[in-house]
Amino acid sequence: MSSEHIDEVSGISTTGHEWDGIRELNNPLPRWWVITFYITVAWAVAYTIAYPAWPMLSSATKGVLGYSSRNAVKIELAAAEAAKGKYVAAIQQKTVSEIAADDALREFAVAAGGATFKVNCVQCHGSGAQGSKGFPNLNDDDWLWGGTTEQIQQTIAHGIRFASDPDTRQSEMPPFGDIITPEQIAQVGAYVASLSGKVQDASLIEPGAKVFAENCVACHGDNAKGNKELGAPNLTDAIWLYAPGETAIAVQVRAPKHGVMPAWIGRLGETKVKELAVYVHSLGGGE
Amino acid sequence: MHVLDKTQMERLEAKAVNSAKTRQPLYAPRKKIFPKRASGSFRRFKWLVMAVTLGIYYLMPWLRWDRGPFAPDQAVLIDLANRRFYVFFIEIWPQEFYYVAGLLMMAGIGLFLITSTVGRAWCGYTCPQTVWVDLFLVVERAIEGDRNARMKLDAGRWTARKLVLRVSKHAIWLVIAAATGGAWILYLADAPTLIGDVFNGTAASVAYVTIAVLTATTYTFGGLMREQVCTYMCPWPRIQAAMLDENSLTVTYNDWRGEPRSRHAKKVQAAGQPVGDCVDCNACVAVCPMGIDIRDGQQLECITCALCLNACDGVMNKLGKERGLISYATLSDYNANMAVATAGGSGPVNPSLVRTADSTFSARLAHFHIRKIFRPRTFFYMGAWTAVGLALIYSLLTRDRLEINVLHDRNPQFVTLSDGSIRNGYTVKLLNMIPEPRTIVVTMQGLQGAEMSVVGSDLPAARFFAIAVQPDRLNMLKVFVRQPAGEVRHAAQTFKFRVEDRASFESDEYTATFNAPEIAR
Questions:
Q1: For residue B408, which phi and psi values (nearest 5 degrees)?
Q2: Which of A6, A32, A132, A195 to mutate to test the interface with B (most CBs of B within 10 A)?
């Protein structure tokens, strides 16, 4: 390996290394390549000076340009807030039905309300607002406390049977197990079930109607269509908050369950409550 | 002190591998090339190609094409902001980008076809690198003079004149480069508006960045790097070896009549030694923009621009010899003729073997025949190229300009309403792909007793509705389909959404699913 070897074909010297007779030509690099290489080296060094790079004891060097990805996010978030500003201001000023009537505002409110819903409401009402036993489905057209945007707004803002809010929606069905006999409970259960479906023993319907007229019409109405002022459900439709059928109805008559919804105005503020009301109203069942 | 006997000192047989005498620099400076102006048929053809390609590139964005009031009137426009591509009468939506893929396939196969027949014609005539280098050389010649003047100027000391010439040359290059970058962005937005914005300083910063990048690359590649781009950066010279075969035409130095070359032909002839047609005037070398000698044979650096062919023909004319010492020839013809000239490879080239007694060419010489273009390989390329082209044309003529896409709400899948009926929600996307507003009819097919209602519209619930759709837009509707409880047959029923334009009879269908709870059956 000590002497210089010249490749006989190309006349170019080799690096002096040999592998099974194969030698490597010692061709020089083109100048542009070498210059480009030095430029990239210089660029890399300059980059580490300009931007945060070198690890120090507690943190890394800050870089002379003062760039920080955290700040970049902050600026982008501020820009997003600024872009929303026009809509948010309009929502603050207008009523929910005005918002719902304005195409652009409604679109914004539905998107914003949808996001708020995903964070605050899905735990009870489900991610599709489809509800579950004891928690109403918000997609349908059956509303305990009314389905206009204003009524929905009121419900969201002050909740239902939420003791710490003086404006909360309040009603309570008494436990009829203490008031009427078990036979009467079975009869009224059969009567109510018969309003929207079939019952096993039709002979219970007539005495049941009498029990209903004596005990239930005050809240549920003469025709059992309910009363939204009191949150008394319509008993003639196909939608049941707990379960359909005479047995389930009898259970509810004997010892009623009452759901509680918190008041959201304190936690979310008026703008978000309005957006939520428009969103819930848009799900398909709004009145 | 003990003095050693010098004869006992060991002498090492060592030689520095990296001694100063043999050490080579880490880089080799580029040797500048000063191509001489050529003239002749191929040079004229190159001027023509340059005029046509540059003309298309710089002027195309200014061409107008009336598409009515709802679409831009620029003939060729890549509207990135609205995701539309306009090419004369064709409008392409992003999901139809496969047309571009098809065109790229055709370009690729076309490149194979051209290369297998006439060699690296792409490199020599139409490659942007070649065209722009040619343009930059025109500027260089106009300012600094032809080859000899430029070499003298380059070797000379820096004087005021040299400075003026160099500055003006680079200034004009930069202007051309900026115009190149400027023309590029005109394809991406309305040209007359954008050019005004660019000069007013009100265009988007991405426009200026694009111009700056393309100015830099054009100036660097066309003015400074030139042949190095082809030799070091471009992969095509490497691929060409696989594309060329023995029947491909390529610029060839015909050794069989040129060798042995001599600058003193008559003296050598008088001495009774063989002498070829090549007078070693180096005209072919002087005009070469790649700085190579075509007489070395086929080589990676050769872009087959045929300027050496023109230069040599000029010399042959002056000498009163047949043109074509450098010619477009196939390797098989060249080999056949070499066999004649070397008497079957038994000796060095003897030019007298290719000539008859009256010094015309021997009848045994092979000449290019047009038949050689038609061989299985080129038929295959041509067939593939045509097949892709026909497929694209067929697809273009039969494509839908009215489409419907439906997304079924999945959460909740269905909603039970007060009267027991079942409601499903759908996001219906209506694609009106022509730049005209139209009224289309959406109909339901199947799903007994069900009716549709459009959210946010006053349309009554029905099994069909007519709706006005925006020109050249995707129109999105939220549609609720409601089926009475008694009509529900299965937990998952299929039905069709059908859209029709009753004026043009265009239509499209989408098969959707209607979900219901098990209990409602």
A1: -80, 130
A2: A32
